[in-house]
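Response to reviewer comment R2.3. The reviewers asked that we include at least one raw input/output pair. We reproduce the pair for ABC-2 type transport system ATP-binding protein here without editing.
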Amino acid sequence: MATAIAVHDLRKRYGDFEALKGVSFEVAQGEIFALLGANGAGKTTTMEILTGFRRPDGGSVRVLGLDPARDLARLRRHTGVMLQEAGFFPDLTVAQTVRTWQTFLTAPRRDVLEVTGLEGKADTKVRQLSGGEKRRLDLALALLGRPRVLFLDEPTAGMDPQARRATWNLIGELSAEGTTVLLTTHYLEEAQRLAASLAILNGGTVVASGSMAGTLAGRGGRVCFEPPDGAPLDELPLPAVLDENGRVVCRTADPDLAAQTLLGWAAERGVPLRGLEVRSATLEELFLDLAEEGTR
Ligand SMILES: Nc1ncnc2c1ncn2[C@@H]1O[C@H](COP(=O)(O)OP(=O)(O)OP(=O)(O)O)[C@@H](O)[C@H]1O
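Raw output as returned:
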């Protein structure tokens, strides 16, 4: 598949502080890609360089084959951007804001208030919108120009669960129609649900990247079950601990094999393994493991 975004050995300093220390990743056309990391990891800096708001100190970035530092005007025609702080005019209504932006475009979308669930707020002044509604307006404006690439910096921050779900559906539909989406988020469930690929940044360096499924499978997983009657944990065929709910948890590189081993052991002893659950690592587990490894 064609590459929509290519980032190679990207570097950025703020004075003496190195915010990006050689970041590389690629996003395929039509893919949803999650850029993840703790506060200060370098996500917004990367996003700002990709959208032409900041210049890098080293490395290269290409969006649809264009360099945002040199071809910004051409690139703007094909990209939609939702950064963390939107610059709205507070005294315009929602509808006036959209109309103002539409005048800059040749064939703008006309349905952005409907798709972002803001049609009921058309006559409300921007200053009176809630935080989540402002995010939705920002998303509506990012969609106006039918972008081929969408940059979304924490798109669902402050949204209620219903608005968040509606936004996930919308992002999924846009990707299905061929829009490439690069998003950052602190909601790991959101990233796991939406993104086909990811990069996790830590202190300006990529500490994990690749397809979501492959990255999670590569971290192994866990098998959980109720403690078997009368069998102490140290008699189990695999190392195990009790979690906070009193369930037995075996963390393992190959959860399917571990489950087979445990079932064989239980059958031999004639003890049932109640509530058996076999699963890959979640993104949250991967994220927390990497954060812990980073502090060692
Ligand atoms: N204009 C600036 N001047 C100096 N330091 C900056 C500037 N912008 C960002 N930084 C620093 O660079 C680092 C990366 O910041 P960045 O905003 O890219 O992180 P982030 O991953 O987006 O974090 P968050 O999740 O909090 O949004 C941080 O340590 C931040 O303090």
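The chain has two domains: 3-216, 221-280. The radius of gyration is 23 Å. Further pairs are available on request from the corresponding author.
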